[in-house]
Amino acid sequence: MNPEGDWSIQEIARLAGTTRRTLRHYDAIGLVTPSRIGDNGYRYYDAGALVRLQRVLLLRELGLGLPAIGEVLAGQRDDTAALRTHLEWLVHEQQRLGRQRASVERTITELERGEKPMAEKMFDGFDHTEYKDEVEQRWGKDSYTKSDLWYRSLSQDQKDDFLIAAAELGADWADAAQDSVATDSDEAQALAKRQYDWLGSIPGTPRTPDGHPTKQYFTWMGETYVADERFAKNYGGLAGATFVRDAMAVFAERNL
């Protein structure tokens, strides 16, 4: 903190785990504005701005898009009340993760004892079959079975790496959408290539004879991101998912 009692945009980006580009975008749309602009042209943020940024980031975690976040912040100006709502959600997530941890620890203990794990207790807090019916209906039971068996076979570290890669890809998509990047730009198409490669890393993905994900499957996934809010929240909401779908469609037409 400097003598003025605020923080520079570089410091806030580092502390909040975001980017200066994102903070500048939040400023441009009136979501989180700096408390002052220094003589050097740098943005500075006071404690009030930091509280607002914290609320924005928490709402992003809930899957809200930026327009919806703006509406929430405009309608709920009591920072303490808003943060209490966020705290309730975090407590709920903590409890869910606690149940997951307990179920895994219970399974380990039972296996170490040579006992048969109790199936009804093994998956407390999990929902890894959320898209089972949809995948089987569209692409067949074999596709779902292969992907499900593959995911179950991963170690926890491997699962963490896979999910972290997906989260990082989703965040990069959301940032590009916020910056109004053109869907046919090099940046958007590089993201589409990453999406294609990520989907191709999953066994059970419908493939061409040479082993690559099919054009039909790739474009269908893009449409699904928009049609299903469970997917859309991974890309910052409907607007972000629409950007992803359109960029994927360009990639498919050019390369598949």
Keywords:
13 helices; about 260 residues; mainly alpha; single chain; Multidrug-efflux Transporter Regulator, Chain: A, Domain 2; 2 domains
Could you give a short description of this structure?
With 256 residues, the chain is an all-alpha fold. It contains 13 helices and three strands, in the order βααββααααααααααα.
Describe the structure in your own words.
The protein has 256 residues and is mostly helical. It has two domains: 7-77, Multidrug-efflux Transporter Regulator, Chain: A, Domain 2; 130-255, no CATH class. Helices cover 68% and strands 3% of the residues. It has 13 helices and three strands, in the order βααββααααααααααα. It has a three-stranded antiparallel sheet with strand order 1-3-2. A hairpin with a 5-residue loop joins strand 2 (36-37) and strand 3 (43-45). The termini are far apart.
CA gyration radius, whole angstroms: 22 Å
The tally of structural domains comes to: 2
What's the β-strand tally?
3
Distance between the termini: 52 Å
Q: What structural class do helix, strand and pairing data support?
A: mainly alpha
Outline type: globular
Percentage of helical residues?
A: 55-70%
